[in-house]
Structures are given as C-alpha cells and as structure tokens.
Amino acid sequence: MLSKVLIAWPLLFAVLIVPIDAIVKCNGSELSARSDFEVGLLTEKQCTHVIGDIFIMNLNFAKRMPCYWSVREVHGSIIIRNTSNLGDSVNFQNLRTINALDAPALVISKNYRLKLGIGARLGHVYTRNPTTYYIAHNWPRMMTESQHYTLYNAAAKDRPVFFADYFFQTTPCAETAYKTLAAIFGCVSFLVAIVLIFWACYGRRPKDLKY
Ligand SMILES: *[C@@H]1O[C@H](CO)[C@@H](O)[C@H](O)[C@H]1NC(C)=O
Ligand SMILES: *[C@@H]1O[C@H](CO)[C@@H](O)[C@H](O)[C@H]1NC(C)=O
C-alpha cells in the first residue's frame, strides 16, 4: 500500500507539472475578438506566450473566454475597448509579463461593467510608449484585486502613467500633487478635530452638565 502511494506521488507531480511548464506560442490575432461573432473563433489552444496585440472589443454580454487563463507572456499590447456587461469573462490569471512595442501595454477604455481579472503574478510591464497603462472612461471602475482597484481610481485622468513594481503596487506620477492634497486634508482634519474637542469640553449647555 505504502509503495503504491510512493509510486503515485511522482506520477501525480508529473501530471501536474508538465502542462504548466509547456510553452504554447500563439499569435495575438488568435486571441482577439473584435465582435461578438469572433468570440466563437477564439483559439482553443492553451496559449502561454502570445506574439502580437490582443484586441477584445465591441463585445456585449458575458462570454466564456477561457483562452486567456493560460497566458503568461504577451509580446504586444492588451487592448480592451468598447465592451459592455462582460463581467469577469476576461481573466488573465496567469499573466506575468507584458512587453509592448509602441502602444501602452494595457489599454482599457470605454467599457461598461467590466471586471477584469489580472493575477498577482504580473510583475514585468514594459512599453516604449510614455504611457504604460491607459485606463479611461470605464464605468464602474472595477478590477478583481484591490491593488488594481487603486490603479483604476488613480487613472481618472486621461493619460495616466504608472510604474508597477513586482507586486503591481502602483504609484501615480503626480506624486507631489497627491502629497500636497494629503497634507491639506491632514491639516483640515486636524483643525476639525480641535474644534470638536473644544466643542465637547466647553460648548455644552448647562443642562447637559447636571450630573
Ligand atoms: C499573426 O496573424 C496575422 C493575421 O492573421 C498575420 O498578419 C501576422 O503575420 C501573424 N504574426 C505572426 C508573428 O505570426
Ligand atoms: C461598440 O460596440 C458595439 C457592439 O457592442 C457596436 O455596435 C458599436 O458600433 C461599437 N462602437 C464603436 C465606436 O466601435
């Protein structure tokens, strides 16, 4: 019995590891859908490395699009534009690297009810374009991970530039402006607190103090 278990373990690992490590190269066009009709033509390969831009656009309503789950590296941009009610259909849960050329690495614009999933493995994002992430005119601003939610919020202006560290913590470039705002907010909060404390100590009418 024990020996059977000992034999079974390596087999189990082999089964688990081989498909994960295999590299499947795909062309970005195989993973692109520019209309609802083209969703049916998406590749059924478990692509891990994608060469070329991925376009997901002009779609309506939730779809089953498992072709993005296995993608680890994209050599090109990911462009999601003009979609509505896709929900969490688009999920790049294994994405680690985006190496774009001249366009921003990630373009997410004019989407309604998109809950884009990008796993926490995304670490290397590169583009020659001055804007790394172009995220604008989406409603509501939704991503699955809280860090990406920060990214969405900070991207309210039209041409945001973000730096992403290994864990995809993002820093907006207008850092001094944010610091100033934070300082002003801090001072105002402090003053309000002082006023409330004074009011609590001295502002009560005599009938409140009868005990
Ligand atoms: C990808 O597909 C497009 C159109 O189908 C083609 O023009 C392009 O050359 C392909 N790219 C690669 C790297 O195979
Ligand atoms: C946006 O997508 C819809 C289909 O969902 C399409 O009818 C419309 O023409 C698209 N708009 C643009 C500007 O491409």
Automatic annotation (TrEMBL):
It comes from the Eukaryota. InterPro entries: Rcpt_L-dom (IPR000494), Rcpt_L-dom_sf (IPR036941). Pfam families: Recep_L_domain. Residues 46-118 form the Receptor L-domain domain. Residues 1-22 form the signal peptide. The chain crosses the membrane at residues 181-202. Keywords: Membrane, Signal, Transmembrane, Transmembrane helix. This is Recep_L_domain domain-containing protein. It comes from Caenorhabditis japonica.
